[in-house]
Amino acid sequence: MENLIKAKSETAADPAVSSEANLFEAVRGVSHAADGHGATVGVNDNATDTAGPGVFGKSRGTGVWGESETWMGVFGYSISTSGGAGVMGQALGAGVIGESKTWMGVYGKTESITGGAGVMGEHIANGTGTVGKSKGGVGVLGVSETNEGIHAETNSPGTAAIATYNNNPNGTGAAIFAKKEGTQGHAGFFDGDVFITGNLGVKGDITLANADFAEDFTVMDQTEPGEVMVLTEDGTLIQNTKEYDKKVVGVLSGAGSYKPGIILDKQSNNINRKPIAMMGKVFCKVDADTSAIERYYIECWLGISLLFSSIFVLLLSKMVPLHNIYSIFYGIQT
To answer: Most CB atoms closer than 10 Å: which of 11, 71, 114, 215?
Structure first.
């Protein structure tokens, strides 16, 4: 059957078909086809990059309206490989608005294996790329089967990649919460230094990879870890040079494979501070030039006047880990 209406225009100013109505649709198309044919179809077969739209709608209300009882109200499809979208919205307000009473307001899906996202938000000025907001649910939810649920990066010189805030002053919830199922792995892992401005509470144990418990002191001369240090009148430390010196504070921590696990009184603005081992395992330098040192048992008192305690250590004729002989411990000095 031939077309019931056929029209053609050869000029840029005149439409092929023009219709006008004051109270109803100017053009109404009805189709009973079930194989994808539309009641009204617009085709623009111009092969240039400046081709006009297939269908154009203009109104002070809704420019184009689509409605369906079982599927999409409006469907857009593009095979562009240079950035063309299936559906694009542009406005002074929201470019695209999606609403739903039972599912997603806006749903994005992609099969890209080159980095394409299901949904992407980009702000080319100083605003937020993507915003998630909810009254009682989750503002933004990220789920992945094999990679990060949420991934954040920044090139900022002074702000964090992720910032979390709990703005309820009476709330007991955390600004950030992490939970790991099972006994393998960690709920939180930090590759780098961690700084806390408030208190740190721990319900379980604290495990440290390094060996001793140390305290920073100001050291006035050039010393190396393992040196025995003594206290001066002004509260600084120097290397011990006398036998049985009662001003001995302790051993400079960090020699060999034993590094301090905890350091007290750390002052980052003072470069002359060094840690003195107070408890734990430490390497200690000894000198056997003037007299022999018993290999298996020599008791050496290092009086620690600041703490009113003493430390028992066993020293060998070369630098060795003290715990290989017997444990270091403190006792109250009488």
So the answer is: 215
**How many angstroms separate the CA atoms of 258 and 3, rounded?**
92
Fold of 212-332: Virus Head Decoration Protein; Chain: A, (2.40.300)
Question: Nearest to residue 251, comparing CAs of 239, 236, 264?
Answer: 239
Tell whether pTM > 0.70: no
Token pair belonging to 289: 């030039």
What amino acid occupies position 301? W
Task: Give the 3-state secondary structure of residue 323.
Answer: helix
Residue 40 CB-half CA count within 13 A: 12
Is the distance from CB of 15 to CB of 52 less than 8 angstroms?
no
Question: What DSSP assignment string belongs to 141-170?
Answer: ----SSS-SS------SSS-SS------TT
Any idea what DSSP says for residue 231? Answer: E
Instruction: Please give the Cα distance from 174 to 169 (Å, whole number).
Output: 11
Helix then strand then coil, in percent of the chain rounded to 5, is 0, 15, 85
Q: Where are the alpha helices (DSSP H) in 42-200?
A: none
Q: Which tokens sit at 322?
A: 């003290």
Q: Amino acid identity of 61?
A: G
Q: Which residues of 99-138 are buried (b: 16+ CB within 10 A; e: fewer)?
A: eeeeeeeeeeeeeeeeeeeeeeeeeeeeeeeeeeeeeeee
120 vs 84: which has the higher pLDDT: 120
Residue 55 confidence (pLDDT) above 80: yes
Residue-wise pLDDT tens digits, 183-209: 999 999 999 999 999 999 999 998 888
How far apart are the C-alpha atoms of 158 and 260, rounded to whole Å?
30
For position 4, what pLDDT does the model report?
64
Q: Would you state the pLDDT for residue 3?
A: 56
Cα–Cα dist 117/152, whole Å: 14
What DSSP line would sit under 27-89, residue for residue? S-------SS--SS-------STT---SS----SS-SS----SSS-SS------SSS--SS--
DSSP type of residue 156: -
Question: What average pLDDT does range 291-318 have in this prediction?
Answer: 40
